[in-house]
Design goal:
Radius of gyration: 26 Å
Low-confidence stretches: none
Number of strands: 4
Strand order of the largest sheet: 1-2
Distance between the termini: 13 Å
Strand content: under 5%
Order of helices and strands: EEHEHEHHHHHHHHHHHHHHHH
Largest sheet: 2 strands, antiparallel
Oligomer: single chain
Length: 336
């Protein structure tokens, strides 16, 4: 779909989403001066061929989305570090296998074996080998345990207090006590909760996905307990401190302003100075499309109206399912 970035009017609907179709349409409309798009390299090349002088503007939502994915990977990769305040990491067959695979990958790397050959020898996916190769310590591959909320959680403080007062208190006694307080779960659930170390941990377990969501939320929209979890994680892990600062600085760049392109350069240098390999990959993606990214951070144009029309189009397609072809669909989109 082609949308007027200034007025939001629907201009045209293309028959397919290939770069060749877009290039042909742009050649028929040489007056276009600014093109907003996502991160597709094929579309970028088609625009460059058809309109050599047009300014390409990357979509700011996609920039933030890509940063969020990189941030989640970093939070997960360092969960063994910031997760020290929660339940202890599991020590079992999976953790041992992870450490052994890391050792095998790095032994082959030290002998000069390439990543593709390592993948073949160890029967691992190439992306898995790459992930092991860029980690300098096997402990960074061991994830903090992820536990779902349970019926025991509301009684955690009582259990912790009782076990501090009487370390050898029987589980059955604790079950009777919290049952009187309203616990409706089983003894087996309580036993697993205690043996997993969730009672003695400084804070309840939190998943990397939830912690990443806290880091990506505007500080003014966070609750006190969410700010506390961020502070705890950043104080326990230096990499999380750097990640939190970088996320906040990049969020400020998403408000278009003059000079943001220079600030982006400084941000990329700062990100590369941190030990955050997934964020390094994100910065490389920014550099590959640097002109469009700089335009997105300095100019007011965006893809918001296009995404809104996409949502409306999906509704129209569901209404028309099996009843008409592209001609009627195009007609309804343009006049809807």
């Amino acid at each position: 779909m082609i949308i007027n970035a200034e007025t939001g009017d629907r201009v045209d609907v293309l028959a397919d989403r290939t770069a060749a179709t877009l290039e042909a349409w742009l050649r028929e409309h040489p007056g276009v001066r600014v093109v907003c798009r996502d991160g597709s390299g094929a579309y970028a090349e088609a625009i460059r061929r058809a309109l050599t002088d047009a300014v390409q503007v990357a979509d700011r939502w996609h920039l933030w989305h890509n940063l969020a994915e990189a941030a989640l990977k970093e939070v997960a990769a360092h969960s063994a570090c910031w997760g020290k305040t929660g339940p202890p990491p599991r020590v079992g067959k999976r953790a041992a296998t992870t450490r052994e695979r890391w050792r095998q990958v790095h032994d082959l790397l030290d002998r000069g074996v390439g990543l593709l050959e390592i993948s073949r020898r160890l029967n691992l996916a190439l992306n898995t080998v790459k992930r092991y190769a860029r980690i300098d310590q096997p402990e960074r591959l061991v994830r903090a345990p992820q536990y779902r909320p349970t019926l025991v959680d509301p009684f955690r403080d009582h259990l912790r207090r009782r076990r501090e007062q009487e370390p050898a208190v029987p589980v059955l006694q604790l079950l009777h006590e919290i049952t009187e307080l309203g616990y409706t779960g089983s003894q087996n659930l309580l036993y697993r909760y205690i043996t997993q170390g969730r009672v003695e941990s400084d804070q309840p377990a939190i998943s990397p996905k939830r912690l990443a969501r806290y880091l990506l939320t505007h500080p003014d929209d966070l609750h006190d307990h969410q700010r506390e979890r961020i502070d705890t994680a950043t104080s326990a892990c230096a990499e999380m401190t750097g990640l939190a600062a970088l996320v906040g600085d990049f969020a400020a760049l998403l408000t278009p302003a003059a000079g943001n392109d220079e600030r982006l350069t400084a941000w990329i240098e700062q990100a590369r100075a941190e030990d955050l390999p997934h964020l390094h990959a994100f910065t490389r993606g920014l550099e590959l499309d640097r002109a469009a990214v700089s335009a997105a951070l300095t100019q007011p144009f965006h893809n918001g109206r296009t995404e809104g029309v996409n949502t409306k189009t999906k509704l129209i397609k569901r209404q028309m399912y099996g009843r008409a072809g592209f001609t009627l669909l195009r007609h309804r989109i343009l006049l809807g």
